[in-house]
Amino acid sequence: MESAIGSKVAVVGSGISGAVCASFLAKNGVSVTIFDSGRGPGGRMSTRREITEDGKELYFDHGAPFFASTNKDVMALVSEWEARGLVVEWKEKFGIYDYVSTKFVDIEKEGSSKKFVGIPGMNAICLTMCREPGIETMFGVTVGTLQWLEEKKSWLPVDMDGQSLGQFDAVVVSDIYVTSPRFTAVTGRPPPLDMMLVPELAFKLQEVPALPCLTLMLAFEEPLPSIPVRGFSFKNSDVLSWAFCDSSKPGRCATRHVTVFKICFSFYHYNLDRASTSYRHIKSECTMDNGYTSGQWL
Questions:
Q1: How far is the C-alpha of 258 from the C-alpha of 295, rounded, in Å?
Q2: Are residues 21 and 83 both part of a single domain?
Q3: C-alpha to C-alpha distance for 284 and 278, rounded to whole angstroms
Q4: Angstrom distance (rounded) from CA 171 to CA 226
Q5: Does the pLDDT of residue 285 top 70, yes or no?
Q6: Which Pfam families does this entry report, sorted A to Z (predicted)?
Q7: CATH number of the domain that 58 lies in?
Q8: Which of 6-10, 207-211, 232-236 is least confident?
Q9: Across all residues in the chain, what is the average pLDDT?
Q10: Which of 45, 70, 211, 230 has its Cβ near the most Cβ atoms within 10 Å?
Q11: What is the CATH number of the domain that holds 163?
Q12: In angstroms, rounded to a whole number, what is the distance separating the alpha carbons of residues 176 and 187?
């Protein structure tokens, strides 16, 4: 292992791919340092935790609502996570909501396809793996540039203030923004990784999308029994993509109705600079005969 990639590796990004990679390397004797601009691990497996006035914990999985796989190698890893109490199968009914007919259609049977969720939140997997022996984590650190030191045959990550983050034998980039033009749109700087350093990857990386997403996190004081499913996608809606009831997941607080909506990318893209208009459109779609008409938006 060390002869192939070196004994000291930097991993940029602590989402599921970065965390799994770091865990695998550390278990094989490699010293790993994870850099992530966020406050903690998760990436698209992120979870937001809120405390209500009466002390109840609410978890919003505002990234991936669940994950599923038929790959044998992945499922072997999932079985390991299950044994460690990190994930559990989410056995509920799911379907499709037709915005035109205002009806739920194509409701699948409970447990017809295996869906897994993290315990107590989707970020539990990443959080646990990032804490394993041999892994150092540096959160709140944005890698501004990745420099190749030819004389030393090593990589030098540098933060946004120009400070060195150490030298590494290899770098694993699990965050697409390291090579994406969106990094420039957000920071006003070129992407951290100069594609001239890795020309063989440049074409492949151009095919990897980097699409931001907008989510709406709702909590109601009482359960909403009128909704027959615990997760559904939207049909004939230009605003909403899907919605999942996080409070129905195993181990969650069931005294509140907690749901996360994902907004369609096209709506987000064209209404990004019109926040008040976007909010009215989203709230209108969420409250038209689909079970979210009652209750106070918390």
A1: 12
A2: no
A3: 10
A4: 50
A5: no
A6: NAD_binding_8 (PF13450)
A7: 3.90.660.10
A8: 207-211
A9: 86
A10: 45
A11: 3.50.50.60
A12: 15
User: How many angstroms separate the CA atoms of 194 and 160, rounded?
Assistant: 15
Kindly give the residue spans of alpha helices, DSSP state H, lying in 97-234: 124-130, 181-187, 199-206
Segments forming the whole domain that contains residue 106: 49-122+213-286
d(CA 296, CA 298): 6
Q: Are residues 158 and 255 in the same domain?
A: no
| Choice between 225 and 9, residue whose per-residue pLDDT is larger | 9
What's residue 251's pLDDT?
Answer: 87
For 115, 125, 202, the CA distances from 84, given in Å and listed in that order, are 17, 10, 38
- Quote the tokens at residue 123: 């970020």
What gap in Å lies between CA 201 and CA 235, rounded to an integer? Answer: 37
> How far apart (Å, rounded) are the C-alpha atoms in residues 281 and 298?
18
202 and 71 assigned to the same domain: no
Residue 117 and residue 144 in one domain = no
Domain identity same for 63 and 108: yes
Which residue has 């002869």 as its token pair? Answer: 3
- Spatial distance between the Cα atoms of 55 and 131, rounded to a whole number of angstroms: 27
Rounded CA separation 69/79 (Å): 12
Q: Is residue 292 part of a domain?
A: no
Residues whose CB falls within 8 Å of the CB of residue 196, separated by 6 or more in sequence, listed in order: none
The C-alpha atoms of residue 79 and residue 77 are separated, in whole angstroms, by: 5
CA–CA dist 129, 11 (Å, integer): 13
Predicted model pTM: 0.85
**Mapping DSSP to helix (H, G, I), strand (E, B) and coil, where does residue 272 land?**
coil
Q: Quick one: 151 and 53 in the same domain?
A: no
Question: How many angstroms separate the CA atoms of 215 and 257, rounded?
Answer: 16
Number of domain units in the chain: 2
Beta bridge partners of 139: 36
